[in-house]
Design goal:
Largest sheet of chain B: 6 strands, antiparallel
Radius of gyration of chain B: 66 Å
Shape of chain B: elongated
Structural class of chain A: mainly beta
Strand content of chain B: 35-45%
Order of helices and strands of chain A: HEEEEEEEEEEEEEEEEEEEEEE
Structural class of chain B: mainly beta
Oligomer: heterodimer
CATH architecture of the domain at 826-1058 in chain B: 4-Layer Sandwich
CATH class of the domain at 826-1058 in chain B: Alpha Beta
Distance between the termini of chain A: 47 Å
CATH superfamily of the domain at 826-1058 in chain B: PPM-type phosphatase domain
Strand content of chain A: 35-45%
Number of strands of chain B: 80
Distance between the termini of chain B: 155 Å
Helix content of chain A: under 10%
Number of strands of chain A: 22
Largest sheet of chain A: 9 strands, antiparallel
Radius of gyration of chain A: 19 Å
Chain lengths: ~325, ~1050
């Protein structure tokens, strides 16, 4: 990002201090769970690569340790998608240090190359462990300076890589960037973002889930890529300049692409991509990413930068004929 | 007297057993960023031989010497601020592992060297170690083992390893803890290979520590607990001897670090605090203690456990800084851990395992073995308006005596169930301050505000003491019976006193005893009695004298509120800010306060006892403290002493050599040093001497010494450091500075100077000699010329002298001729004798004289005169001729003139002759005359004098007739001058003397003065009766005698006439 755009982004990041700032998925997104399948799973079940990467930003001035809490990290029980015998393991790895975000491979949609860049700080693998079912587990504590310092991105950046190892079950979980180990207590100024989102859609018809990619300066077109939406509903895009453009995605086990032109008013704002459920299809998982005209991935922020976008109506005067 | 049984016990007593285990509270000293740490996340700890503690943090390396933290980071040359591990090798090089930037080595002071790697930058250096060959190995967490070689990093093990948690080298083997188990590597092979330790395969091995004593390895894991492997056999096999898991009582069981310290295995369970596994016989665990937030651990996330060279335990935490474990010698009991009350005013012991604690309103029993409160009794309801003041447990009767404010003494029993029995009737209404017992006679001593009561075991009062029968004060606050049965009593503002055989002895004006505020006393096994006072420290009385201990002798405070001792005769004193203990084998007290781990203080008066296990129990206003002095460590390790820097005139010296030479100048020397004793940094003291400046050894607690002026000379500096327990370094700091002498102090300089001076003198001599010679030659020439000149002059002078002599002879001849003429003019003696009987004493000063004598005979009248003409010598002689001639003329011309007539005429004619009446006349000459006319027929004498008197002596009486004051002639020409004649009758035999002034004006005598008329009159009176010849002789003798060596100043003429 160029400097001016970085400053604007930083400004908006600093302004975002809602209670759900560091919950992933956040309250604004209305997404039930994140989702990562074991690497033996069928991609038609919604996870294209069995790896999910999240980034957490810790303010530079923070001195106290912090935790990344995982809700229901294991695979079994109430929420997870069991497919046959429960033989899946999920590994949660935290990276810090130089390169954990700045390395180009870390910001790609596919887990290839040096996406495990940076310094491995901790790793925990969960299988079928009842005590963590419907319960929180805290990764950490972490020293803020162990992250990669990127003031333009909000401070010290830490990377969480969730990998599905073995098995074919789906691990449904949530995350929280917390200042306490045993409670989800927000970190002032903290945030979370990612470049590709794999998540579970709500099972109920009419339910709307949102994701909020940020449109920086220089973007003229965006391409919304959705994996395995299964034609269960509509995808509607709302921006400050678009009232709600409807697109369809009927793919299963593949990517669908929708291209949108970005107008001037939409620069440095967030988009609201809504997943409107028309059919009550259960256990539908999708993966989403958005690229600009150069094919670069745009980050999704747990809390939309600049707030949830609202279409701005313009009042014009018709010329007399 | 019958003791009234108190029958309301069931109603008023509320008993309940708490049964709560009292927890030991451990004390830690916490260091954070506020204390100077770069960051509160500690990743590693180590200590160098220099004593400094090195601390790895996420934002720099901290170095701690007991005083402050010094920080090092990238700006100082380190590869990165993030320090992940540190290691001190056997050559005193410091190895620093970074988070992402590889390794920095500190090879000597301030020389950080960043090691280079051919591969990518190595991250997260987790461990370093060194083998016997001196090779340095280090492990990188992502799975690499490397070796340092010539400032570079080279891979050591090529096999892939999973995440490495720790690496250690022991003997010929390297041990590597990884996420997939423990591995052993034989370092003696050329191609080192990983050998897995079977029992740990698949286990995340997080840490380990070598146990030298048991020749094995303590291994910490995640989820599998702790293993102990023992090294067996020559091949280095590790045999699993023990696994401790469930006993750790941990929910997560993540071992972060493990360390054997003495006989305890310290285990950090990450997020759950510490477990201390106390070992018994080899590696078997005896018990496991937990240290967490409940009992004092500031953070549950302990990343590192370290034991320093003095045996202190240091803990690094994740986010809460560095902790120094202070001590386990104190245990604290408060309401937070189950104590029913905190203001403990009295403690009593049942002699067994129980102690009784009293507050103002409550009582509880406490089991000291299990640290558990047994029973609590509320006394408040029983005594609503008063407080409990003291207690005493009688081990014989098994009764507890409780002293109160107004109700005297309550009796209680502790078993089977603690309860208050009754009030002691005989003591009712008393204000009881203190109670004790004479165990021999079994009497109770009740110290009250109204004196002392001594009762029998049944509380019958046997004796009482107050001010009426000898006590100096009624208010007794304490008492004590010593082994010689002296009863010591303490009263406020009262000198020390005792009662012995009913006699009260007040110790006043005792040498060495200067207190009036005695609080308490005990006696040790050697018979010394120890007293504590409020404000005057502690006194020890050995039976003959008092020895005072104050804060100068180590007491924490001079205000003591209790004193007690244990079985080893260690003496303990309680203060408001801590305690002081004097070990039996030490001379001084040692203070223990908050800094030494005593977190509760403000102790109450007389609230302390020693239990059967030799522990001290102390009551304060904030709770109960147990002090186990057996856990006191004496630090026998002297401080690690090192030179921090030596500056000469502000410039730092290279102290590589022990002797350093400098050229002459004026120098200021500053020596910085540090003796590190992390046990008690503030207690480190130094003893030093600089030979050449200091005559004696000096002591200081400062870490710098200044010598502002150093002249030339040799200065040998020696410095020792001593820790707080009196152990001094064996090897001091020594160095010598030699400042060269200035040029003018060097021997060769003096030699050269001397030679130079000699040479200079020689040259001066030579030059001078030459100059003198030249000068002499010149002078000689001059002298010769002068001599010639003088010779010529001499010849001239001689010629002139000859001429002068000739002239002089001519003159002299003339004068001699003139004398003959003058003599011819003077009357002949024979002629004078025809007319008068007289002598003439005539002594001219020169050849010719200005004085003359004259006579004239006419008509039967005899005229006689003595004339003194002006001047003497030739001019006087001329005047005498004029005078004589004119006298003749005048006398002949006048008819029987009177003397006055003659003088008038003479005056006229002299004036005319010398033309003295003319103006401008230069002649002032004249005459002084004494003139007489004698008429023998009528015996009439007429006298006239011009400035001269006449003396007449008749019948030894002298008469003086003075003449006119004018001379004849002279400078004044006055027509009015008239010389009078004086007439008188004379008798036969009268002597008259006519004389000039020469005799009386002669200088001489003892004072060199004039003879004077007075002496002349006396002389004449003495001789007047003698013959004329005799008179003349005497006058002459007298004159010569008077004159002595003086010159005759004037002509002398005396004419003595006998009539």
């Amino acid at each position: 990002m160029k400097n001016s755009a970085s400053l604007i982004l930083l400004f908006f990041i600093c302004c975002c201090g809602s209670a759900s700032a560091q919950a992933v998925p956040s309250e604004d997104e209305k997404i039930p769970f994140l989702c990562t399948f074991g690497n033996k799973a069928d991609i038609k079940w919604g996870d294209d690569d069995f790896v999910q990467v999240f980034f957490f930003a810790i303010p530079e001035n923070r001195k106290n340790p912090f935790y990344i809490r995982v809700f229901d990290p294991e695979i079994s029980g109430k929420y997870d998608e069991e497919r046959g015998p429960n033989d899946t393991k999920t590994k949660f790895s935290i990276y810090g240090g130089k390169g954990c975000h700045s390395d180009p491979d870390a910001k790609k949609s596919d887990p290839k190359g040096k996406y495990k860049s940076g310094v491995l700080l901790s790793t925990n693998t969960f299988a079928n462990e009842a005590k963590y079912d419907n319960n929180w587990y805290a990764l950490g504590p972490f020293n803020p300076v162990e992250g990669e310092l990127q003031p333009e991105n909000g401070g010290y950046i830490f990377k969480l890589i969730v990998e599905g190892l073995e098995g074919n079950d789906g691990n449904l979980y949530k995350l929280f960037l917390s200042s306490e180990k045993d409670n989800s207590v927000k970190i002032e100024g903290g945030n979370a973002f990612c470049y590709e989102y794999t998540f579970r859609l709500d099972d109920n018809k009419g339910f709307v889930s949102h994701i909020y990619p940020f449109i920086p300066k220089g973007v003229t077109t965006v391409e919304i890529n959705i994996f395995d939406y299964d034609n269960e509903g509509m995808i509607r895009t709302v921006t400050v300049a678009k009232k709600g453009e409807i697109t369809q995605s009927e793919t299963e086990g593949t990517w669908s692409k929708t291209k949108l032109t970005i107008v001037k008013d939409e620069i440095n704002t967030s988009m609201d991509i809504q997943f409107i459920k028309k059919e009550p299809i259960k256990n539908n998982n999708v993966a989403v990413n958005i690229t600009n005209q150069y094919g670069e991935l745009l980050p999704f922020y747990a809390v939309p930068i600049g707030g949830v976008p609202k279409f701005k109506y313009k009042i014009g005067v018709k010329k007399e004929q | 007297m019958i003791l009234r049984t108190f029958s309301l016990s069931c109603f008023f007593i509320v008993c309940f057993a708490l049964g709560k285990v009292q927890a030991q509270v451990y004390t830690f000293k916490n260091f954070t960023q506020d204390d100077g740490l770069p960051q509160s996340y500690i990743y590693d700890l180590t200590q160098g031989k220099n004593g400094f503690l090195y601390i790895a943090t996420g934002e720099g390396l901290a170095v701690y010497g007991g005083n402050r933290f010094k920080k090092f980071g990238k700006k100082d040359g380190l590869a990165e601020n993030f320090i992940y591990s540190i290691f001190y090798d056997n050559k005193s090089n410091l190895w620093i592992g970074h988070f992402q930037s590889g390794v920095t080595a500190l090879q000597n002071i301030n020389n950080f060297v960043v090691l280079k790697s051919k591969e990518q930058v190595i991250s997260k250096i987790i461990s370093f170690d060194q083998d016997a060959k001196g090779r340095i190995f280090f492990a990188s967490a992502p799975g690499g083992i490397y070796q340092s070689r010539n400032d570079s990093i080279v891979p050591f093990i090529n096999e892939n390893l999973s995440t490495i948690n720790k690496m250690v080298v022991h003997g010929n083997y390297m041990y590597i803890a990884t996420q997939n188990g423990l591995f052993q590597v034989d370092l003696t092979t050329k191609a080192p290979a990983l050998k897995p330790i079977r029992e740990t395969e698949g286990t995340n091995v997080t840490s380990f520590d070598w146990d030298e004593e048991n020749n094995g390895l303590w291994v910490g894991t995640e989820a599998a607990g702790i293993y102990f492997f023992q090294l067996k056999g020559p091949e280095g096999e590790l045999k699993l001897m023990q696994n401790i898991k469930n006993e750790l009582n941990s929910s997560k069981l993540v071992v972060k670090d493990i360390k054997k310290i003495k006989q305890t295995i310290w285990v950090s369970l990450y997020g759950e605090g510490l477990r201390l596994i106390d070992l018994k016989e080899n590696y078997k665990s005896e018990r496991i203690r937990t240290i967490n937030a409940d009992n004092g651990l500031p953070s549950p996330f302990i990343t590192k456990i370290f034991e320093d060279r003095e045996g202190n335990v240091w803990l690094g935490s994740f986010g809460s800084g560095l902790f120094q474990f202070i001590s386990a010698r104190f245990e604290f009991f408060t309401k937070n851990n189950g104590l029913p009350f905190e203001n403990i005013v009295s403690i009593a012991s049942d002699g067994g395992k129980n102690i009784v604690l009293l507050s103002a309103k409550e009582l509880c029993t406490f089991n000291t073995t299990i640290n558990q409160t047994q029973t609590t009794i509320r006394i408040k309801d029983l005594l609503p308006d008063e407080a409990v003041l003291c207690s005493y447990y009688d081990q014989e009767t098994k009764q507890l005596l409780i002293g109160t404010e107004k109700s005297g003494v309550l009796l209680a029993e502790l078993s089977p169930v603690p309860r208050i029995l009754k009030k002691v009737k005989t003591l009712e209404g008393m204000h009881v301050n203190y109670i004790f017992k004479d165990k021999k006679k079994k009497n109770y001593f009740i110290c009250t505000s109204d004196g002392l009561l001594i009762t029998d075991p049944a509380f019958n009062i046997k004796t009482s003491y107050d001010t009426n029968n000898g006590l100096p004060h009624n208010n007794l606050t304490g008492g004590f019976i010593d082994k010689s049965e002296r009863l010591w009593l303490f009263s406020p503002e009262t000198p020390l006193y005792y009662i012995e055989k009913d006699y009260v002895t007040l110790l006043k004006d005792i040498v060495g005893l200067n207190s009036f505020k005695f609080i308490s006393a005990i006696q040790d096994s050697k018979g010394n009695t120890w007293f504590c006072t409020e404000g005057d420290g502690v006194y020890r009385y050995n039976g003959s004298k008092f020895i005072q201990y104050s804060s100068q002798d180590g007491l924490l405070s001079d205000f003591g509120y209790f004193i007690t001792s244990d079985q080893q005769d260690n003496i303990l004193v309680g203060h408001k800010n801590g305690i002081s203990i004097k070990y039996h084998n030490k001379k001084e007290f040692k203070g223990l306060d908050k800094s030494k781990g005593l977190m509760i203080y403000e102790f109450n008066q007389n609230a302390a006892i020693t239990d059967a296990d030799n522990n001290f129990w102390m009551g304060s206003s904030k709770g109960l403290v147990k002090y186990d002095s057996k856990l006191d460590k004496v630090n026998t390790l002297p401080p690690a002493l090192s030179l921090a820097g030596v500056e000469l005139n502000g410039e730092r010296l290279n102290m590589k050599d022990s002797i350093i030479n400098f050229p002459y100048a004026e120098y200021a020397l500053k020596i910085n040093y540090i003796g590190i004793s992390l046990t008690d940094p503030s207690a480190v003291s130094y003893r030093y001497k600089c030979e050449g400046i200091d005559k004696e050894w000096r002591t200081t607690k400062e870490r710098t010494i200044d010598y502002p002026i150093l002249d030339d000379g040799t200065y040998r500096f020696i410095l020792f450091a001593e820790n707080g327990d009196g152990f001094e370094t064996a090897k001091p700091i020594r160095f010598t500075i030699v400042i060269d002498k200035p040029l003018w102090k060097k021997t060769w300089f003096y030699v050269v100077l001397g030679l130079g001076i000699i040479e200079l003198f020689y040259l001066i001599y030579v030059f001078r000699t030459r100059a003198l010679r030249r000068q002499n030659l010149i002078l000689e020439k001059r002298v010769e010329a002068k001599t010639n000149e003088l010779q010529k002059e001499k010849e001239h002078v001689e010629a002139a002298n000859k001429l002068l002599e000739e002239k002089n002879n001519d003159i002299l001849d003339s004068i001699n001729y003139a004398q003959r003429i003058q003599k011819a003019l003077l009357p002949k003696k024979e002629i004078i004798e025809l007319y008068v009987n007289s002598f003439v004493y005539y002594k001219p000063r020169d050849i010719v004289s200005g004085d003359f004598y004259w006579y004239y005979i006419k008509n039967g009248l005899i005229y006689v005169a003595v004339v003194d003409c002006t001047g003497h010598g030739v001019p006087g002689a001329f005047m005498s001729i004029i005078g004589s001639t004119i006298l003749d003329q005048v006398t002949s011309e006048l008819h029987d003139p009177l003397p006055g007539e003659i003088l008038n005429s003479l005056n006229f004619k002299v004036n005319r002759s010398l033309k003295q009446y003319e103006s401008g006349s230069e002649s002032h000459d004249g005459m002084d005359i004494v003139l007489c006319r004698l008429n023998p027929a009528t015996r009439e004498l007429y006298f006239a004098g011009a400035r001269r008197p006449i003396y007449m002596i008749r019948d030894s009486k002298l008469s003086e007739i003075k003449g006119t004051i004018e001379p004849v002639g002279g400078h004044v020409f006055s027509m009015a001058k008239n010389f009078e004649s004086h007439g008188m009758k004379y008798e036969k035999g009268d002597m008259i003397y006519l004389f000039s002034d020469g005799y009386v004006d002669q200088f001489g005598g003892p004072n060199n003065s004039k003879y004077l008329s007075k002496n002349f009159k006396t002389l004449l009176l003495n001789i007047a009766a003698k013959t004329l010849e005799e008179q003349k002789d005497i006058i002459d003798q007298e004159f010569e005698k008077w004159k002595g060596n003086m010159s005759q100043i004037d002509d002398i003429l005396i004419w003595g006439i006998r009539l």
